[in-house]
Amino acid sequence: MATIKDVAKLAGVAVSTASYALNNSTRISAATKQRVEEAARTLNYKKNGIASDLKRTRTNTIALILSDLSGPYYSELIKGVQDVTTANGYDLIACSSIGGPQSTAVKFLREKRVDGAIILANNISDQITIESAQEGFPLVVLDRDIKNKNVYHVEVDNEHGGYIATEYLIHKGFRNIAYIGGPKDSNDNKKRFRGYLNALKEHNISAYSNLNSIGNFTREGGYKATKLLIARGELPEAIFYGNDEMAIGGLQAFKDHQITIPEDISVIGFDDIQLSEYVSPALTTIKQPKYEAGALAVDLIFQIIEGKQINEKYTLSTELVERNSVK
Amino acid sequence: MATIKDVAKLAGVAVSTASYALNNSTRISAATKQRVEEAARTLNYKKNGIASDLKRTRTNTIALILSDLSGPYYSELIKGVQDVTTANGYDLIACSSIGGPQSTAVKFLREKRVDGAIILANNISDQITIESAQEGFPLVVLDRDIKNKNVYHVEVDNEHGGYIATEYLIHKGFRNIAYIGGPKDSNDNKKRFRGYLNALKEHNISAYSNLNSIGNFTREGGYKATKLLIARGELPEAIFYGNDEMAIGGLQAFKDHQITIPEDISVIGFDDIQLSEYVSPALTTIKQPKYEAGALAVDLIFQIIEGKQINEKYTLSTELVERNSVK
DNA sequence: CTGTTAGCGCATTCAA
DNA sequence: TTGAATGCGCTAACAG
Predict the structure, then answer these.
(1) Could A54 and B49 be called an inter-chain contact, meaning their C-beta atoms sit closer than 8 Å?
(2) Any chain B CB within 8 A of the CB of A2?
(3) Domains, chain A
(4) How does residue A213 score in pLDDT terms, banded at 50, 70 and 90?
(5) Which of A49, A69, A99 sits opposite B94 (nearest CB)?
(6) Of A169, A172, B185, B204, which has the fewest CB atoms closer than 10 Å, so is most exposed?
(7) H helix or E strand, kind and range, residue B117
């Protein structure tokens, strides 16, 4: 494996000259540059990026920590991250936090292998996040609240989203509205539920018997929770599912029982995942500004890298998407 | 930022001792080890992974090169890659090849930042792939044929897949079968088309007027190609779309024109993406063994790293998934 | 415009 | 069991 030394030797110049030539420094004459490039080509020289990074004490890359590289896929959000990173001339790598402390994600978080990181991974502990955050290593968290120096936070307004979902159902004339929620320890879920309660309270409507923290944010969870609801025999007029996956599971359960949506019962979800447009009926839901969240997250990283002072928390707003699952 | 020197100083030992202690060498007494670990903790020491990698001349990580981190999402394939990588104690990072020669992917491919790479990115040129392949840097390509030393190749049998798709339609009694294809320069597309032609020829059926390389493998491309077909006025009895995305676009176009599937015309796709199960009607398609392909790809990397001799090409077979889009 | 040289932070060899 | 010394490959300050 040829190193820059070999290239320099073959070109008959000093190592530094070779380095300058290869890195497009202006201080090198065209002739020398040519010679060095030619030498590099004949030796099939490839620079060792690791050595380069070590020397410069920066990597020019940002890590995106995901709970699982194989999905669930926050496509829009990643697009936002990707676009802004590229626009700033940085590189982006994605890694998974499967495996907890042994995971690739933790390795990258801990070992200064990147210049900053964005975390969108519920399976990474707050502790690891806090331990990794340091002066000069900006960390932006997207899916939780962490109060800690050097940890910044972008979130969508889940509470208000829960509020407008419920408000919408109330405006449609429903009074008996159930909330089928996700995991108890999910921050997003808590906030959506709170929004739901607030909207009800504002209209002096009492909440439907609690089905929070039963659906687990999965399609299957939504299916089972809905089956349970049906088995109880007292269906509400409308259901607000904590996320679209659960709502889609619910749609399936209703279909199994010949209950038609939205004629018999109205359904609203949360997230606006791609699938929600394709299920039948198309799912009315709350859309999150995912692209913007991703873009903002990286933008914050760059601001911190540039030494600017920024807030430790940013909140983006949600929006109703009307489709066909509410009567 | 504390380095290992600082830790050693605080613990009152030599740097090497600190290194051994931190890396669980047996040659360090328990007492010393404790002292070093404590020092590391109080200084909030984090090792510099880059320096470590440079010294050891290996990174213990594999790169997965994708055309775009934000999808299209080869979920199953990535899962295969991920599982096997983790099982071998290696780390996995994903990076995108958007931006061509300036992309993160190329940087990782060229600069020895990883111990091996798997390429699933149509937007990376053969030339870059070939240039990057070297002794000691195994490269596995998943979406094209490259004949070159040190480049290995895992593919699904697209030709046979195209064959069984067409064969299936013929068996259902159709004679007038169109193929709507993807990009002209796509290897997968070429092979699927060839399989289509072979099946027709075997039954002495002539091909429908060529619509190959019109659909671009995108939903929108499939939509437009189908619109064109409809505008022509002479609909075939059945259509074989080069991939599911295009087929789904086609379904939409037919819906726009009140043409019902499969009553009026039969449709078959290729890939078995997640969505194909949810569209209406559910899409009959050809399933690729994606998980296996991903798993095999990494497995090959490890075999090469271990110095074993392997074939330069592996082919996996496809399978028909019957749903409701063929009459 | 080009060459000499000192580290970047760490792991590891060799002596003690 | 520990410590001193070396160098992984590269960049950049400095000198010429």
Answers:
(1) no
(2) no
(3) 4-55 (1.10.260), 61-155+290-316 (3.40.50.2300), 158-289 (3.40.50.2300)
(4) low
(5) A69
(6) B204
(7) strand B116-120
